[in-house]
Amino acid sequence: MTLPAPSAARTLTCRAVLFDMDGTLVDSTAVVEEVWGEFAARYSLDIAEILRTSHGVQAVDTVRRFAPAGSDVLALTEELSAMERVRTAGIIALPGAARLLASLPADAVALVTSADRILADIRMDAAGLAMPGTSVTADVVTFGKPHPEGYLTAARLLGVEPGDAVVFEDAPAGIAAGVAAGIRTIAVGANTGALPPGVLHIPDYSAVTASVAADAQGLRTISFQL
After folding, report:
1. Which residues, other chains included, contact 193 with Cβ-Cβ below 8 Å and sequence gap of 6+?
2. Does residue 72 carry a catalytic annotation?
3. What is the radius of gyration, based on Cα positions, of the chain?
4. How far apart are CA 224 and CA 18, in angstroms?
5. 46 classed as catalytic
6. How confident is the model at residue 10 (pLDDT cuts 50, 70, 90)?
């Protein structure tokens, strides 16, 4: 059997790039596990189950799922969010993330995260990454991942059709959101779960490069070598 050439199989061309944050651009694992560990201990919950299902989704959805009946979900979510905002120890950028972001046209990049804008700013800064000019955070969407709203909104804000964008995501919920939006999705890291058909995988951005050119119509294109 003849296998396709690696370069042909691992090249994607698009007009806009949409990144998740936690686990995709920023490694915030230590803080996330610490805060949710304290939540689990308070209510005698299974931390492993919380971490398994909370990855990539909005905090309010996790609190609603696991908090005891009768809890003030919004107040508890805000308490946990306040804890996360003051804990930045151990937050770093994924390998190659800063270089890749710097190589992309600023007006063709968006951040789509389940964090609110305050937390997104804090974590991107802690990781030494510039916040993209376009961002879709938890506080500006009605439905969180795995709903496609965030990614569809980002594509619209960048002025591209979903089919002309690429999503980088690390969590099953976020990958599902990108696929549901009709956007080509690249899974990042070790926590992606089983991948839907057509979703490529990279460990990080160490070997990823991007080049910018114009197509036959004079429109800007971004080509990724994965």
Report:
1. 171, 172, 175
2. no
3. 18
4. 13
5. no
6. confident
